[in-house]
Amino acid sequence: MKALLLFCCLVAFTSMAQTSSDDVIDLYKVNVVWPGLSLEKRVNQLRTVQVEIAVRPAFRSFPFFSTADSTFRLGVDPSVSMQYRVYSDPSRRIAKGRSTANNSMNFFAFHFQSRYFDTNLGIFDLFDLRFHGLQNNLGVVWGIQRNYPGKTSLNAFIGGGFFSFLQFNVPFERAFSARPAIFGGVRVGFWFKKKVNE
Prior knowledge:
The chain is mainly beta. It contains 2 helices and 8 strands, in the order αββββαββββ.
């Protein structure tokens, strides 16, 4: 825990002494907080597409007949997400002396994320129930991205849209539901880019 707090402090206080840019570039990331890999690809002026593959710990509680009968499981859920990003005009940050290099700007994005879960639950060791399916988020988010000189990266976003839930239950039938939702995320890790021959 202390190591994680120290790492976050380094991210927050690292100097932004970089050359500013009025455009975006291709970036690769390895995330430590919300572990995963991502690729951000430039589409055109101040627009990118980011694709991410990640895993997340999932703690589940399934009450049955009473609190004492609850079943708990700790799992790891794989997920894939995509954002089509439109970055804000960098001129304001540049005018304030802040860096915009390496896509260090604010953005709006079309956001999609799909997460697969698979959990087996035993009740009194009599029989097993398997819960597995997909959870999806679809909507629009606002976010910030800061890629620091020391290769550390901070990315956070929040927004709203729709949450859908498709569950394949054994021995039950399929279940699907959708509703409005607010969602967001934080990523902390390291960024990389291809070297460009001048």
